[in-house]
UniProtKB/TrEMBL annotation:
It comes from Candidatus Avidehalobacter gallistercoris. One of its GO terms (cellular component) is plasma membrane. This is histidine kinase. One of its GO terms (molecular function) is phosphorelay sensor kinase activity. GO terms for biological process: cellular response to phosphate starvation. Its EC number is 2.7.13.3. Signal peptide: none annotated.
Length: 325
């Protein structure tokens, strides 16, 4: 590329030089016709330069146009070595776009499936009541099931809206210094009834270290982690929420001694709709989106996630927030 540009400039320079020399020669020798001749020569020169510029730019751009025809083979079709970094960026963006598209398609397919299940069940119970197949004494039970399934749909839609809001938000938006401990205490308070029902003891301890955050997102994050720690536990189990700090981070940990997560599922539980314990998740009204929301919130806060879990022994999920400098 650089060489071609060099020769292009040389060529344009030579043209200008030659034209200038010719023009001055004419002006000196044919003084009577000088104005007309110089105008004519000027116009001719201008037209020639336009043509030359058009040809040269087409010649310079043609390898780029060829390259754009086959974006899959960008590296192979690289016309100039100087373009390799640009090609690498293009390729990376293309891979990212393909991945985003794949995730969106998978997400839509999953959403449709998850919406269909409760709706089918609502429709089935409603039809039994409508046609009189349901006996009078069953009506109350069926209405309860319709109510529960409608609740699942509302939860699902709420989580989907939350995820799309998080998808759109810029990391670090509207953050302010906040102490995590009181938020954890409030959130644990909201779940105290669920914990008691499940026979699980929930406690919160730690320091008042501050992080840069958004309160409602931190509440959501702690709620989801504690909700899981209660839901995937056993009667007599515990959930311990702690806030600690070290030289570089403020660490929020939610530890339980519940059912644990088998190693083969550990990599995937933060994916949308992924459930390790499908039956327990579904029977307790889980949407499979809780940890995907957690992951997004962690990214928003520039924090880091750590998971430790042993099947049958329990799970600890820690979020390492950067310290406020
Ligand atoms: N503390 C935990 N102990 C054991 N398994 C867990 C724990 N937390 C999460 N899991 C597993 O990870 C899966 C994904 O959790 P996630 O919170 O995303 O979805 P969910 O709990 O099924 O539904 P919801 O969207 O209502 O939270 C769960 O289905 C469960 O199998
Ligand atoms: Mg959950």
């Amino acid at each position: 590329m650089a060489k071609k540009l060099f020769w292009l400039f040389v060529l344009v320079g030579v043209c200008f030089g030659a034209a200038g020399a010719a023009l001055s020669a004419v002006l000196l020798t044919q003084q009577a016709y000088a104005p007309w001749l110089s105008l004519l020569l000027g116009l001719l020169l201008f037209a020639a330069l336009l043509l030359l510029a058009k040809r040269l730019s087409a010649w310079l751009l043609s390898p780029l146009v060829d390259m754009a025809k086959d974006l899959d083979e960008l590296e192979k079709n690289a016309p100039y070595p100087e373009l390799l970094p640009f090609i690498e960026t293009l390729r990376r963006q293309q891979v990212q776009k393909d991945e985003n598209l794949r995730q969106r398609q998978e997400f839509s397919a999953n959403v449709s499936h998850e919406l269909k299940t409760p709706l089918t069940s609502i429709s089935g119970y409603a039809e039994m009541i409508e046609t009189g197949i349901a006996k009078d004494e069953d009506v109350k039970e069926f209405a309860g099931k319709i109510h529960a399934e409608a609740g699942r749909l509302i939860d699902l839609i709420r989580d989907i809206i939350k995820l799309s809001e998080l998808d759109e938000a810029e990391p670090g938006e509207e953050m302010q210094p906040l102490s995590i401990l009181p938020i954890a205490q409030d959130t644990a308070g909201m779940l105290a009834f669920n914990a008691e029902k499940a026979g699980v003891d929930i406690s919160v301890s730690g320091c008042y270290a501050q992080v840069l955050g958004r309160r409602e997102l931190l509440e959501e994050l702690i709620y989801n982690l504690c909700d899981n720690a209660i839901r995937y536990n056993r009667p007599g189990g515990f959930v311990r929420v702690s806030v600690t700090e070290d030289a570089s981070s403020v660490i929020l940990s939610v530890a339980d001694n519940g059912i644990g997560i088998p190693p083969e599922h550990q990599e995937r539980i933060f994916e949308r709709f992924y459930r390790a314990d499908k039956s327990r998740s579904k029977s307790s009204g889980g949407t499979g989106l809780g940890l995907a929301i957690v992951k997004h919130i962690v990214i928003q806060h520039g924090a880091e996630l750590k998971l430790e879990s042993a099947e049958g022994k329990g799970t600890t999920i820690s979020v390492l927030f950067p310290r406020i400098s």
